[in-house]
Amino acid sequence: MFTGVGRIVAVGDIHGDYEKFVAVLKLCRITDAQGRWIAGKTHLVQTGDVLDRGPDSKKVMDQLMQLEGQAEKAGGRVHALIGNHEYMTMMGDLRYVSDGELAAFGDGPRTTPVGRDPQATFPRYRAAFAPNGPYGRWIASHNALVRVNSTIFMHGGLSPRFIQRDIVQLNDAIRAELRGERDAQGKTDGVGSDPEGPLWFRGLAEPLQQPLLDTYLSALQAGQQARRIVMGHTIQEGGITLRAVDRLALIDVGMSRMTLGAPPACLEIVSEPGSAKERVSILK
Question: What pLDDT shows up at residue 186?
Fold first, then answer.
């Protein structure tokens, strides 16, 4: 949980499209032409699903790793959140891994179409995303949910069943599952695989009557001390979607050419100096 942040930029699902990732970082004034951090004290939130479908997820992760260090030196922060595809990969579900991703780790190719069980072991790829592998350790060191100022970010959404749960406990549970540890209920799978959990829930992306949405946002304020929720996961064919003015934001625009190939876009939240007011903008 972070407070006093002057500028937040949120980017949705990437799915292995490095060129689109580079483009959206430039568009949102996060990096320069050489890919270096230029955003000062900005907090960049990438809401998960870097992995699967596209060929260059390794390059995206490597770029995020570099930006984490550069941002910290500048007084900013990079929040690379855990999405359902990061969770799937670390749990050994490789239905959506692409030949390009496998090749980047010296493995593959697939023997079945993307979306089906690959029916192969891919030892190098699995080792890279094991709990003690370099990319598995990196993913499992991150959060699935983060609150910056008055906004809570995650990949899927916070269902009513989870809205009162402490986000520190939720993050701890998901990280424990990724490491293969048992959670507090003695299960090896729990929050991270729950269809109503923060990696998977799509209910907030469905059409909601205004009274129902108002009730939900009031519960979010009471349960999480957050007035706004931002999530990816569910593609918005018309671009970033804002509801209840700007208190609900759906930011997965399908940028990856392996999904919609939509133009890059991000959400920008700027706090006015000396005021509690925030300006929410869509950059595209």
Answer: 59
C-alpha to C-alpha distance for 235 and 255, rounded to whole angstroms: 9
pLDDT exceeds 90 at position 187: no
From 168-172, 247-251, 275-279, the region with the lowest mean pLDDT: 275-279
- Its domain, for residue 144, covers 7-92+129-270+279-283
Q: Quick one: which of 85, 81, 68, 92 has its CA closest to 140?
A: 81
Predicted local distance difference test score (pLDDT) of residue 104: 98
Question: Does residue 256 belong to any structural domain of this protein?
Answer: yes
100 within a domain of the structure (yes/no): no
Pick the residue with more confidence: 182 or 184? 182
| Non-local CB neighbours of 47 within 8 Å, separated by 6+ positions | 10, 11, 12, 13, 81, 83, 153, 154, 155, 230, 231, 232, 233, 251, 252
Q: What is the mean pLDDT of residues 255-263?
A: 97
pTM of the model: 0.96
Q: What is the pLDDT of residues 54-75, one digit of tens each?
A: 999 999 999 999 999 999 999 9
Residue 251 domain flag: yes
